[in-house]
Write a structure and sequence with these properties.
heterodimer, A: 352 residues, alpha/beta, Rossmann fold, Helicase, Ruva Protein, domain 3, 2 domains, five-stranded parallel sheet, two-stranded parallel sheet, globular, B: 820 residues, alpha+beta, 3 domains, six-stranded antiparallel sheet, extended
Chain lengths: 352, 820
């Protein structure tokens, strides 16, 4: 039923902000990073004007965006998940669609379907809500697993196949999904395959009393989202993504990422460790984080700071671990604290 | 069975096994069953009491009560009220038994008959040890410490009994029991962690554990082997001198020594420790050859020389005139001042003979016939200072040759020989003195025969004894020590009609310069005293290589007329201070005659060996000390060297170079390591899981650095991060100042003890240890690998041949063997 899809708004007009990123990629290293910083700062300021006191969540959301990943926001109702998703979507000048996942939502509502055109006497493809540059999936775990699975192909391969025909999705493409913790009523936990496709999962958490107080002031009046204007163009984002791909990652850091993901597979507290895709996501996110930090190289600090958001939601603790009330986040933090950094190899260092 | 119950059983078993070594102490072994019963009883009592919610110290107390009751039941059952209740009567009975046992211990030699008193003492003490073992090992769970009571039990058993070579058997039993106990405790300790899985452990952790175990074991073994080398020279001091109480400490109840001072003497001589017994300063010319006499044995009964019943009186300050000394004989008074050390605890006062005046502090009694002073009651020479005036009697040969008739009283007392005195001895005496007419010449002939012509040798390996049989054996084997020579010569002299007795005391001590001498327990000696009318008792010296022969005993050199002639005993070079120590003593005349060349050589050799041994030990001690110092200062020195190297590399500029010289990667990393290690030295251990950035942050937080130092640490971390993770080709400026700034900041916020530790024993010197062990492990692995390859190369052909053989068989059998 297409009625269930609420495509809220589309920003396809040229935004007023979001330019200034037109320099050539030759002077990538210094100038590119500089520019990236400027763009990101604008977006960040824009988002933070709506979500106050949560710079960390905003930073990771931006990291995921620059790393071409998808973001899962998991938290209890009412802390501003949807607000964050929408703020991020609106701050960037690109096509945005919003899907409200409900139990009766069908896969075709998400991906689109072929409709028989009486005039043309032919099937015509009607794209679903997924055909946008930023897709906000609200309450994704309220939909049945069947519908959730409709996202699998689109999220990983950035295409949709209907009746044997593959349709490319626009670029950049990012799914920002929100969900309530699975213990809540009337929810279907995301399948492992689905969770694995999200680059990072973050929870927003309750705001500090000061932030909450300030929020009352701001939100008391008009909806802050209304005032939000795009500050970056989709093309800027694409360029930044390109830039992020060039961030240097040294062998020891790569090995550290592999070691860390490997450690989740051998941890006795975990039934299922992280996949090789997790390693890829981790390294990509680390690149983006380094770029956000103004560096053209990745350090193990980036890996460490991203380990929990990138890895925790992919892990399945054993029954004993669950019984002892240890969460995946704690396990990942433990691993990070225990795993030694790879020692610098002699050949890598000997160049002076 | 729970592990705790196992521990109880094994501790009882260990006690019972260690008790086995007491079996040889008593003739019958029935008491052992009784002891085992009591051990089991106290263990059961302990197990029961531990089940009750009692404080722990109450358990052994309860065990002791049960033990006392069981002992009463076993040894004084008839005295119990109504047959079961203990009362004062039972206590009295047990006390009487105990007293009896104590007396039995003094009376009987080992093995003793199992009298009830002895049984009570044995069973009671064994059960007591068992209670202690049980309390320590089970109640307080310190099984390793339970080895101490067990060791006490074992050492009592082995120390007292003569095990004729079976000591190792008892040791095996005792050690086995103790090991069982340790094993049980290990299981108990492990089981308290939870269920024990016997599955394979993870290779790595097990390997590391066994690795550490090997190291600890190796260290313990090396210590146990090396330490005794250094302890060797203190051995006697550590465990005390077994024959420690001096000759004849009659006054304080140590019965054996009173009864037979010769036995004590023999023990002293066979195991001299070189301890200083006394020092003295003596006037007169013959100070270097004057013997110190503590007593004399005057009665010979055929089985031993001993003291006849004493004739003691109070100590007259001036002693009576010496027996038989005529005024015509030269006798100059000599004054001697003695200082006795605490090591000499004798009831007999050392004095030159014949003393005329002696007034030592304390209560002393005078024994007239042997002219000795004996402590009254518990009076001993320990720590005594006193002065003695004595006579230096210098008769001439002529005077001695013309000695008159021996008075009846003396003859009766000092010429008595037992009825069964062997005729052979008398015959030998007559043979040796054939052609000599006077008593004096006969005595000299005997002395010469013993010391030179008779072919006697000095040896302390000969059994002790002074009786007829001992004399015969001695004359046959011609080997013995002073006791044999003295007693034999005295007996022979009696046989020849010369009154004689055996004197005990010391040879002259080692000169300390001037007229002072030091006497150690090497100088213990016995010699014969012969009586000549007109001169009284004179000493002779029949023992070869010991002491010095008196002048009058040499008819050639003895002044025939001029009594004032200087004695020649002193060594020619030293004159006033003769070297008269027992180990190298050889009187001047013997030296002149060249007779003691061999003995000298032997003595010198012995001394040489000892000095070599001593010097070796000294060298080893010095080397050990140096090694210890090196070991202790190694961390500090190594750390300082490492710091200089690292910072030198990171901070030194080539002369004339750009001040912002680029550092190589190694230099940057060295600076970083220096920062991390400096923090480690001041109490912030490194964390392998931290990145340079977070490590620097942690150092700044934990070390409470100020802004400058924090920034400096941050710069070092950033440079390190660039080197490690960024694209190559980035430059870094000198970091040494930054490291120094950070280090100064750390030191400023550290406490004084922390700074001292960072300087003297820096924790980061653990890297030295790691590096060393790593190298050792690598080397060992390499050797092992090479060995296994060599082994494979050696056995390879055989194995291939074997495989072929088997393959051939398989083929013949038609089975589908593997293609290999």
């Amino acid at each position: 039923m297409p009625g269930s899809v609420r495509v809220t708004s589309t920003y396809d007009q040229d935004g007023q902000g979001g330019r200034g990123g037109d320099r050539q990629p030759e002077n990538f290293q210094r100038g590119g990073l500089h520019e990236l910083g400027a763009v990101v700062d604008r977006v960040r300021a824009s988002v933070e004007s709506v979500i106050e006191g949560k710079p960390e969540a905003v930073r990771i959301a931006l990291t995921v965006m620059l790393a071409e990943g998808h973001l899962l926001l998991e938290d209890v109702p009412g802390v501003g998940k949807t607000m964050l998703a929408k703020a991020l979507a609106r701050s960037v000048d690109c096509t945005v669609r919003r899907i409200q996942f409900t139990p009766d939502l069908l896969p075709s509502d998400v991906t689109g379907t072929n409709i028989f055109d009486q005039h043309q006497r032919d099937f015509e493809f009607r794209p679903g809500a997924i055909f946008a540059q930023i897709v906000v999936g609200d309450e994704i775990n309220r939909a049945s697993p069947k519908t959730q699975s409709a996202l699998l192909e689109s999220m990983e391969e950035r295409q949709v196949t209907i009746d044997g025909t593959s349709y490319e999705l626009p670029s950049p493409f990012m799914v920002i999904a929100t969900q309530n913790p699975v213990e809540m009523e009337g929810t279907y936990p995301l399948p492992e395959a689905q969770r694995d496709r999200f680059m990072a999962r973050i929870s927003i958490g309750y705001p500090s009393p000061e932030a909450e107080f300030a929020m009352l002031d701001v939100h008391g009046g008009a909806n802050p989202l209304d005032d939000l204007a795009p500050v970056a163009h989709a093309a800027d984002i694409l360029k930044l993504v390109e830039l992020v791909r060039t961030v240097h990652i040294a062998d020891p850091v790569r090995r550290y990422a592999v070691d860390l993901v490997g450690a989740t597979r051998t941890s006795p507290e975990l039934r299922l460790g992280a996949s090789p895709r997790a390693t890829l996501h981790l390294v990509r996110a680390a690149r983006a984080a380094a770029a956000l930090d103004g560096r053209d190289y990745v350090t193990p600090d980036d890996i460490q700071s991203l380990a929990v958001p990138v890895l925790a939601h992919r892990l399945m603790p054993t029954a004993e671990t669950q019984l002892s009330r240890r969460t995946s986040e704690q396990i990942v933090l433990d691993l990070v604290a225990r795993l030694p950094l790879p020692r610098p190899q002699a050949p890598a260092v000997r160049r002076g | 069975m729970t592990t705790r119950a196992k521990l109880t059983v094994y501790s009882a078993l260990a006690s019972a096994l260690a008790t086995l070594c007491l079996l040889p102490l008593v003739t019958s072994g029935g008491w052992y069953l009784h002891a085992c019963l009591l051990i089991a009883l106290s263990a059961a009592a302990g197990a029961g009491l531990r089940r009750l919610p009692l404080p722990r110290w109450l358990v052994p107390a309860g065990q002791l009560l049960v033990l006392v009751y069981a002992l009463m039941l076993g040894f004084a059952g008839s005295a119990l009220t109504a047959g079961v209740l203990p009362g004062p009567r039972a206590l009295d009975a047990v006390g009487t038994l105990l007293d009896g046992g104590m007396q039995d211990i003094q009376e009987y030699a080992i093995p003793a008959p199992a009298t009830p008193g002895l049984r009570l003492i044995l069973v009671g003490s064994v059960a007591l040890v068992a209670v202690v073992v049980d309390a320590v090992a089970v109640t307080f769970r310190k099984a390793a410490l339970a080895g101490l009571p067990l060791l006490a039990l074992y050492s009592v058993g082995t120390g007292l009994a003569d095990h004729d070579g079976r000591a190792w058997l008892w040791f095996l039993f005792a050690a086995f029991g103790y090991l069982l106990l340790l094993l049980a405790e290990g299981q108990d300790r492990l089981s308290r962690w939870g269920r024990v899985f016997h599955g394979g452990s993870r290779g790595e952790s097990g390997g590391r554990l066994s690795h550490n175990g090997h190291r600890i074991g190796f260290l313990a073994l090396a210590t146990a082997l090396v330490l005794p080398l250094f302890l060797g020279q203190w051995e006697f001091h550590l465990f005390g001198d077994r024959a420690g109480n001096g000759i004849g400490s009659g006054g304080n109840g140590s019965g054996v020594t009173t009864l037979d001072p010769l036995v004590t003497l023999a023990a002293k001589l066979s195991r001299p420790s070189g301890e200083e017994m006394l020092t003295y300063t003596m006037s007169g010319d013959n100070a270097g050859s004057t013997y110190l006499r503590t007593g004399a044995l005057d009665e010979f009964n055929g089985t031993e020389w001993k003291l006849s019943p004493k004739d003691v009186s109070g100590n007259p300050r001036a002693l009576p005139a010496p027996e038989g000394l005529a005024p015509s004989v030269t006798a100059d008074p000599v004054a001697t001042a003695f200082t006795v050390t605490d090591r000499m605890d004798s009831a007999w006062l050392p004095m030159p003979y014949p003393a005329t005046e002696a007034d030592p502090p304390g209560s002393w009694k005078y024994e007239g016939s042997t002219r000795t002073l004996i402590g009254d009651g518990k009076q001993t020479t320990r720590g005594l200072r006193y002065e003695v005036t004595s006579l230096d009697v210098r008769p001439t040969a002529a005077q001695l040759r013309t000695a008159g008739q021996v008075p009846e009283a003396i003859a009766k007392r000092y010429l008595t020989l037992p009825g069964d005195f062997p005729q052979a001895v008398a015959t030998i005496a007559t043979d040796v003195t054939r052609g000599k007419t006077t008593g004096y010449d006969k005595a000299v002939a005997l002395q010469t025969w013993f010391t030179r012509t008779g072919g006697f040798t000095y040896s302390t390996d000969v059994g002790n004894g002074t009786g007829n049989d001992a004399i015969l054996t001695f004359l046959e084997n011609k080997k013995g020590f002073c006791v044999h020579y003295a007693s034999t010569m005295a007996a022979m002299a009696r046989a020849l009609g010369i009154p004689a007795r055996v004197a005990l005391g010391f040879t002259p001590g080692q000169g300390l310069g001037g007229k002072s001498f030091k006497v150690t327990d090497r100088e213990y000696h016995a010699w014969p005293e012969l009586y000549f009318q007109g001169t009284g008792w004179l000493r002779f010296e029949p023992t070869p290589t010991r002491g010095s022969a008196p002048d009058y005993s040499d008819p050639v050199a003895a002044p025939s007329t001029a009594p004032t002639q200087q004695p020649t005993t002193a060594a020619p070079s030293t004159g006033a201070v003769p070297s008269a120590s027992a180990s190298s003593s050889c009187d001047g005349r013997q030296r002149q005659l060249g007779d003691c060349a061999d003995q000298d050589k032997a003595a010198l050799k012995a001394q040489g060996q000892r000095s070599w041994w001593l010097s070796w030990q000294a060298l080893a001690t010095v080397a050990g000390g140096l090694a210890l110092i090196a070991l202790l200062t190694a961390p500090m020195l190594w750390r300082a060297w490492v710091r200089r190297r690292r910072l030198g590399a990171a901070g030194r500029r080539r002369p004339g170079a750009d001040p912002r010289t680029e550092l190589t990667d190694q230099q940057v990393l060295a600076a970083w390591e220096e920062l991390v290690d400096s923090a480690w030295d001041l109490g912030i251990p490194p964390d392998d899981s931290r990145t340079p950035r977070s490590a620097a942050r942690r150092i700044a937080e934990a070390g409470e650095l100020d802004a400058d130092a924090t920034a400096a640490a941050g710069r070092v971390a950033l440079a390190t991060e660039r080197v490690l993770y960024a694209r190559s080709g980035q430059s870094a400026s000198a970091l040494a100042p930054d490291v120094r700034t950070a280090r100064d900041g750390l030191r400023a916020s550290a406490r004084r003890t922390g700074r001292a530790r960072a300087l003297l024993l820096p924790p980061s010197s653990a890297r030295l240890w790691w590096r060393t062990t790593e190298r050792v492990d690598d080397a060992r692995d390499a050797v092992r690998g090479r060995l296994s390859r060599a082994g494979a190369a050696l056995t390879g052909p055989f194995r291939r041949a074997w495989a072929r053989l088997r393959g051939g068989k398989g083929g013949q059998g038609g089975s589908a063997g593997s293609p290999e």
